[in-house]
Queue: 4 jobs
Job 1
Amino acid sequence: MKKNLITICIILITTLSAHAQIVKLGIKTGVNYANQNGSDITVNNVNYKSEAITNYHFGLVAELPLGESFAFQPEVLYSSVGANYKAAGVLADINNELGYITIPVLAKINLSKTFSLDLGPQASFLVSNKENVLLDDPKSFDFGAAAGLGIKVTKSIFLQGRYVVGLSEASTNAEIKNSVVQVSAGFYF
């Protein structure tokens, strides 16, 4: 019985080690340049226009190669987006920051050994909402499309630039959609 258990453990460890060499796991962090596009916000009969804000993102990333020139790249990130709303003649701005758990699932097309094109959908789940004036209620789910460029600096270190455009409304009452430019740095273990 002990020999069978030891044999099964050796087979499991060997199998997991083989798969660990195929699937790369890592971490990434970076800067968001986010805005909310669409209709302007009206508060107390004052029309506010949106301006982009700078925020951050961080999380886990995986790469599942399917040959030399193609891979899937799923990620789980915390991403802070939103906008700053300004109005002419009004002293106080409205800051709207939304925190999402985002799950992009990207097709990674390797253009060379260094560069890749990343394309795919992104699902986002609202986890925090910081605003200094009560605006329209944000929706708890946001769907978007992502496109970007990846750069392999070394075998483990990578850089990414990406644009994510919201395809669904970010608010229940206003016609606004999230958009964000992300610049990231990461490391595969």
Note: The mean pLDDT is 84.
Job 2
Amino acid sequence: MIKPIIRDQQFLKIKSKPATKSDFATITDLMDTLRANSDRGVGMAANMIGVSKRVIAVEMGIMTIAMINPTITKKTGPYEAMEGCLSLPGERKATRYKDIEVRYLDHNFKQQTQHFSGWFAQIIQHEVDHCDGILI
């Protein structure tokens, strides 16, 4: 179900709790909401639809993937990026890393560890920040 995007910064600054299999509806809602906003966004965290759980959705080309309880385990190549956010007006500067390794559960709750670089790494970092209550 497509949900409204939360813009309340106080809510967005709350650190999200780990997601469980009982949060599957949130995962579906997050994916639906990101797809509905794909003309202006490429990633979302569950708190952006009002649920303080560690779930992110990221558009990767023609696919949209969910990452449950994502943790960045390695990062290299820091740089400064200008980013926008569906929950905040305008753009802001953020420190990002060119290459990251992420440990997460996939939509089947199977443990994954993957390496991402460039644009996809930047999107994931932005959304993991959301899970940690960090706004750009």
Note: The CA atoms of residues 37 and 64 lie 12 Å apart.
Job 3
Amino acid sequence: MKQYTHIIFDLDHTLWDFEKNSEETIHTLYEQFELAQYGKFDSDSFYKKYKFVNNRLWDEYNKGKISQKELRNARFLKTLTGLGLGTHQIPAGISEAYIELCPTKTAVFPFTFEVLDYLQPKYGLHIITNGFKEVQHIKMTTSKLNPYFKEIVTSECCGYKKPDKRIFEHTLDLIGVTPDQCLMIGDNLDCDINGAREAGIDQVYFNPEKTATKLRPKPTHHIHCLSELKSIL
């Protein structure tokens, strides 16, 4: 078995449970901004539409097609107009309220802390994320993840986004190691798995939903629960 010395994690959808935290936030905003008054949709429909729109926009952002500002400006506009509201009915400040509230949510995936406690004495632990710097810092702090990690690399600070291999190379330079000493763990086949592979780093594809997908080429490892990392490491 290869002897790794450093483990690199993605943050959202891998450790920090983005979907659970986002859903809680969206339900709160539905009440806070009194969206029921329009009689167009309920809280669950609001979340489902937001999730669909946000995922599409993040895909465009990761591919360099839109900016951070465009992503933030568009997601509630597209969500609410898609649910039947006129642009004049979109509440002022709803995007800002989401950005303020969501990062304070603390749900993480099962076994997150158990696995981090197991890994920390043995490996240097680090984060590479395409998320925005100020938001990721709040998430890491409020969910008590910060103490486990040495380097936290955001695409915003680095200047490159996953899957660009330069963000991985930048991280390797920061840590002071070669690719064969590292293992990348993430949920996104393109950003995390293919990106790490291009940089010569072994990968663990974290697939908690057990999504059926063709893994070509196959990642080094494929897991459905973070607890499975103990059998790999």
Note: The mean pLDDT is 95.
Job 4
Amino acid sequence: MLDRSDIRLRAAQLRSNFEEAGALVVDPPLLQPAGLLLDLYGEDIRARAYVTSDGLRGEQMLRPDFTVPVVQMHMREGADPARYTYAGEVFRRQEHDPDRANEYVQVGYEIFDRDNSAAADAEVFALMAKSVAGLGLRAATGDIGILMAAVQGLNTTARRKVALMRHIWRPRRFRALLDRYAHRVPVPQSRQALLSTDGVLTGTDAEIGKRSRAEIDDRIQALREDAAAPPIAENELLALEALMAVRETVPYALEQLRDIAVDLPPITPALDRLEARSAALAARGVDVEHLDFEVSYGRTSMEYYDGFVFGFYAETRPDLPPIASGGRYDALTRRLGQGAEIPAVGAVLRPDLMLLLEEAQS
């Protein structure tokens, strides 16, 4: 059993290292407004966070992470550029896995910088790699932005693109939508019946449920427009499937992705960013030649990231979550910036898991 004082001491050491790298220490409140987090992540977050109610402040959540409050703080009053570090408790409900801690200490490092995103990505990754050196961890990397660029570049309707973008972090739902938009699966009988009806709801139709008549009519019209749209072209779909299957070391992954870009040219700018990041990582001493890269990495657990993503894992303990993880979240600054935005990247460490692995190695 790890001693809490040992965990706090390690957290303080890590935070001190990040201060030496130029970061300003910040300490967001434990209680965060629930409304903001619900707007960002939807009701799904209720299953992962502790929610309470305050007569004056409304619904509040025990801090599920540091990134959102740090972004809020920076967009409200931060200098430009800026680096921040923090160390403190976060809280996650673990009803699906009671063996995992529902309260643990997290140490982080965040960069807000407009000048060189590739260099900032490399700086964060290299700091995390240095922090976990000696633990024998495997580094995994990816780039959500490549898949996003591919979806945005598809030759299909704007409504379909919005639906696919919304479900990028839900691979099964994403796959089902792709199959439907490519006409690879038959239209369900229930939908066929709906599409074959004349007009929309009539005044004699019974209204059941919470949706208004206008909302139902809009939904029926949207389904009809989608049914009339041509399928996603087979060459685009095959290229997208090949894209999602790329799993190689960085140089070979980039080579494969350049080939795929022949059929999906909109991903080229994202590949240029990957190439620039690879060079920046190599300049910081990272062994890029043997660094794993997977286009689909992070799709089930990194919902607010929109670019570079990475994690460090203990292969001898597959039951453990990442010891360190992070990525780029430019879009989050846009959503919280009230019209302003700034490129941003960050990562967090679990000092308790680091101590656990060190204890097992001793």
Note: The first strand starts at residue 24 and ends at 25.
